[in-house]
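Model it.
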Amino acid sequence: MATQTFDDRDGWIWWNGKMVPWREAKLHVLSHGLHYASCVFEGERVYGGNVFHLTAHSQRLIDSARMLGFEIPFGLQAIDDATREVAAANRITDGYLRPVAWRGSEMMGVSAQQSRINVAIACWAWPSYFAPEIKTKGIRLQWSDWKRPSPETIPCKSKASGLYMICTLAKHKAESEGYQDAMMLDYRGYVAEATGANVFFVREGEIHTPTPDCFLDGITRRHTIGLARGRQMKVIERHIKPEELSGFQECFLTGTAAEITPVGQIGEHRFVPGAVTRRLIEDFEASVRAKQAA
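Modeled.
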């Protein structure tokens, strides 16, 4: 049975200030964002009708665009309002949101300062990123062949579409070899992140996580650190060498899509989801069901 594609669905997408039918939300093949990756986006979750950390996501979308040299033609409040509007229009109580902004087709070439800046927001029902039965014992990751580049070579604090090319390559290879994801090192050889999620390790009750100095400091990452510290757990942000992984007992990923996902394996290293991971998952689930202030 064929899977429903994302261009052929019922519903509404917010597009440059107005709601348009889902199937009519199209862009031209010569859009600059397609050819030159002048595109930024967000991934957001709706829990019980409330968008989790909405304003933080909207602000990051604006900031990401500025890092790529363009200004989104809608203010922070307008983006927040539009995000809530599109979730309501599609009657999504629990689901996923994708705001995206990109340079249009007015100019073709590397230089495109006069291209229109387009903004769209879509929303759909989306369950857990990984199957529940896999998450219970922890997902399996292989080491990626690709590394997170130096911040001198990429706008690493921007959630820009072009930065995910190596993530797709790494995840496709991992899945083709029986893994659920891949773990990336950075340009110096330190542990960085998975293809779309930050990583945490646990050793004797203490939580260690890589310093996000060349990859995205995720909103869910920061929320999880807050939950841990609220439980008086010690959280250490530092550079982590891959050979250190054998000394950790637990490991988990965090991200909008991944939420908090236990990890059972990274390459030759094995982990067992334990008390710290379980407690944070419980706290996370309770927190996202609480009404968010923004």
